[in-house]
Amino acid sequence: QVQLVESGGGMVQAGGSLRLSCAASERTYAMGWFRQAPGKAREFVAANSRNADIIYYADSVEGRFTISRDNAKNTVDLQMNSLKPEDTAVYYCVAGQFVTRTNRYDYWGQGTQVTVSS
User: What integer is the mean pLDDT of 56-68?
Assistant: First the structure.
């Protein structure tokens, strides 16, 4: 069972930046992020493969968010720039065998809150 621990959430004003980090208890091929805003369905944000030859972003974050891996530490980071109020959500780290935009990941973190004020 892979354990995922997220960190880095918080509150920021619109236009600001935050960096999320997720540490996995062991090596995984695919890692990424989903988010869920109040009253909305959970949605895909970004994911990549261990060697970064596959990288996916949601259209809503493309060009503003950057996903990166540190394979030595088994971590995945999400650098979020130009944040908007609509980015407010609980962000979940995910890990699994396949890089996909669907929610078919084997492991999910507990989530970290990101709040963007206008």
Answer: 98
